Amino acid sequence: MDEDKTIINTDSLTQIIKNIEGWELKQNKVLERKFTFDNFKEITKFLNHLVTLITELNHHPDFSLNTGSRTVFVSLTTHSEDCITQADLDFASQLNKWPSTDA
Questions:
Q1: Per-residue pLDDT of the chain (103 residues; tens, 9 = 90+)
Q2: What is the chain's percent helix, strand, coil content, to nearest 5?
Q3: I want to staple 26 with a disulfide (CB 3.0 to 4.6 A). Which of 1, 30, 61, 87 is the partner?
Q4: What is residue 52's three-state secondary structure?
């Protein structure tokens, strides 16, 4: 699948982000969300799901794991455009379908 690198302007983005649960807009060019888990088995399942989405959508978010708080942080931006594009919104929407997350 090809990424849709249509740039989303700030005004539209402010409205769209209200409908994508759990995601926050940072610096008008990054979407961020924190996923918290009860145990490492859930984290492993989530990371496998994340890698599957990366492959399917051909989009590569930044993510990090804090083992102390059992939290995965995901940041979305289209690096080549230095802003948020439709590909980021598509990825956020798909990742929100994960069944075992807390925002």
A1: 678 999 998 889 988 988 999 999 998 899 999 999 999 999 999 999 999 999 999 999 999 999 999 999 999 999 999 999 999 999 999 999 887 444 3
A2: 35, 25, 40
A3: 30
A4: helix
Question: How many Cβ atoms are within 10 Å of 102's Cβ, its own excluded?
Answer: 10
- For residue 100, CA distances in Å to 7, 82, 83 come to 30, 31, 29
What is the number of alpha carbons within 13 Å of residue 14 lying toward its C-beta? 4
Handedness of CA 90, 45, 63, 70 (dihedral sign): positive
